[in-house]
Design brief:
Elements: H1 4-19, H2 26-57, E1 64-69, H3 73-84, E2 89-95, H4 102-111, E3 116-120, H5 124-127, E4 133-137, E5 140-142, E6 147-150, H6 153-162, E7 167-170, E8 176-177, E9 223-226, E10 233-235, E11 240-241, H7 246-256
Parallel strand pairs: 1-2, 1-4, 2-3, 4-7, 5-8, 7-10
Antiparallel strand pairs: 5-6, 6-9, 10-11
Length: about 260
């Protein structure tokens, strides 16, 4: 199963193929397609990320304590750029098993001189009291305004909403999707269940023999969905928008194509 951003990229490439002139030679058609790919990467990933970074950095002020979840290249770029602009702030990295990708985020931020705290997701309710804002990345923004993100993102949004903390989602518009979804069951991906068996002390997991048990099944979900009511603002390369503006952005993209 492909992620939303990959699906949108393939749709874009297919559209470019249909627009190609049948009079082109094979090498000319290949060059034209490669150029279309490069333009897509430049406009929708590099330049979009740069624009989002500029907008998001303006929302960071001295004295902030920013909570991030796991690892996102876009969020890390925003925080590093804010540090480069000599803004003084702290970061709380919330992580969860089984991949523990937040460790890499913490290493990069501390290497840049940003004070960081590292906690597991079960400590989120405690640490949220000390946070001033939450910055999350999205794997997709659905047509009904729901945010598709790494499993645990919805929990971060819910806890932040309970403590009246602003939740800022950073998402490029090429990740916007026409799909409508309100739960994590209708559409999701399953990661390797054996990755859930890893233990910190290298001891064998109590459920290591789950395949031999007919009544046991390990489910390692990749995504969850966050309701738009839990999101304060979505920062895109176009503008800072509410989740309810997703259909407008999708229509704009359809007209553009």
């Amino acid at each position: 199963m492909m992620c939303v951003s990959m699906e949108n990229f393939i749709k874009h490439i297919k559209l470019q193929i249909t627009k190609s002139s049948p009079d082109l030679t094979e090498s000319e058609a290949r060059e034209e397609l490669l150029e279309a790919c490069e333009d897509f990467f430049k406009e929708n990933i590099y330049l979009a990320g740069k624009s989002i970074t500029e907008k998001a950095v303006n929302r960071i002020v001295n004295g902030d304590t920013i909570l991030i979840f796991k690892k996102s290249q876009l969020i890390l770029h925003i925080l590093l750029e804010a540090k480069a602009q000599n803004k003084e702030f702290k970061v709380v990295v919330v992580d969860s098993r089984p991949d523990l990708s937040g460790v890499s985020s913490c290493e990069r931020l501390t290497a840049a001189g940003i004070p960081c705290s590292y906690v597991y997701i079960n400590s989120s309710t405690y640490i949220m009291k000390k946070v001033t804002k939450v910055m999350l990345a999205a794997d997709a923004l659905l047509a009904n305004g729901y945010v598709l993100g790494p499993v645990g993102t919805a929990m971060m949004g819910l806890i932040a909403n309970t403590y009246n903390k602003p939740v800022i989602v950073c998402c490029e518009t090429y990740k916007f999707c026409e799909r409508v979804q309100t739960d994590s069951i209708l559409y999701n991906e399953l990661a390797d269940p054996d990755s859930m068996l890893k233990t910190l002390n290298a001891e064998e997991s109590p459920v290591a023999g789950w395949r031999e048990s007919p009544n046991t099944r390990l489910v390692n979900l990749v995504y969850d969905t966050t309701p738009p009511a839990l999101v304060s603002i979505v920062i895109t390369e176009i503008a800072e928008l509410p989740c309810s503006s997703a259909p407008v952005v999708l229509r704009r993209g359809a007209v553009k194509m």
